């Protein structure tokens, strides 16, 4: 018979907070009765969106991440504002970051990129159409925005050119949905 290995969060205190996240210290009871202090980060949900056109090209952003000092392909993404619907936030982020307004969005998947440290949930959406509305409002977030053939996605990921795990998972899911 399987033993219950559930950890129990008995109490949390805020150590630091800003508009994007809160660092908390939790008092955790382990299954064996021992307790430990565990730091965690509470975050707003993240909304992610892209579009795949009729030629099976996916809209990606090429950007640098200073934290890891790495370059890579990403999908448009950002935090969901208070009172904002997640799909609406995904559409807003895509247009702000790429200059393309998505057509009707479909939920692709929800992932937890680092659930041993943070409660961040990334909600990924996609559409089968997009309309160019002009230069991106948040153009400073990426060096370029390109329509990349979806068939190239597995190789991009294998070469480490899509470093964000949740985005890699979403792109592989799109690849499977569209190309089989």
TrEMBL record:
<dbReference type="InterPro" id="IPR015797">
    <property type="entry name" value="NUDIX_hydrolase-like_dom_sf"/>
</dbReference>
<dbReference type="InterPro" id="IPR020084">
    <property type="entry name" value="NUDIX_hydrolase_CS"/>
</dbReference>
<keyword id="KW-0378">Hydrolase</keyword>
<dbReference type="InterPro" id="IPR000086">
    <property type="entry name" value="NUDIX_hydrolase_dom"/>
</dbReference>
<dbReference type="Pfam" id="PF00293">
    <property type="entry name" value="NUDIX"/>
</dbReference>
<feature type="domain" description="Nudix hydrolase">
    <location>
        <begin position="41"/>
        <end position="175"/>
    </location>
</feature>
<protein>
    <submittedName>
        <fullName>NUDIX domain-containing protein</fullName>
    </submittedName>
</protein>
């Amino acid at each position: 018979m399987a033993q219950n290995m559930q950890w129990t969060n008995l109490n949390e205190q805020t150590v630091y907070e800003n508009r994007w996240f809160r660092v908390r210290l939790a008092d955790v009871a382990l299954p064996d009765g021992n307790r430990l202090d565990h730091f965690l980060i509470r975050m707003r949900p993240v909304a992610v969106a892209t579009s795949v056109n009729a030629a099976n090209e996916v809209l990606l952003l090429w950007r640098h991440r200073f934290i890891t000092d790495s370059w890579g392909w990403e999908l448009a993404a950002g935090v969901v504002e208070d009172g904002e619907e997640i799909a609406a936030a995904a559409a807003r982020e895509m247009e702000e970051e790429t200059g393309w307004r998505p057509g009707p969005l479909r939920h692709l998947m929800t992932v937890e990129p680092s659930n041993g440290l943070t409660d961040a949930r990334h909600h990924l959406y996609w559409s089968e159409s997009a309309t160019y509305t002009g230069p991106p409002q948040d153009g400073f977030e990426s060096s370029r925005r390109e329509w990349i053939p979806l068939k190239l996605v597995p190789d991009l990921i294998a070469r480490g050119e899509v470093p964000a795990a949740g985005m890699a998972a979403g792109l592989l899911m799109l690849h499977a949905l569209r190309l089989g």
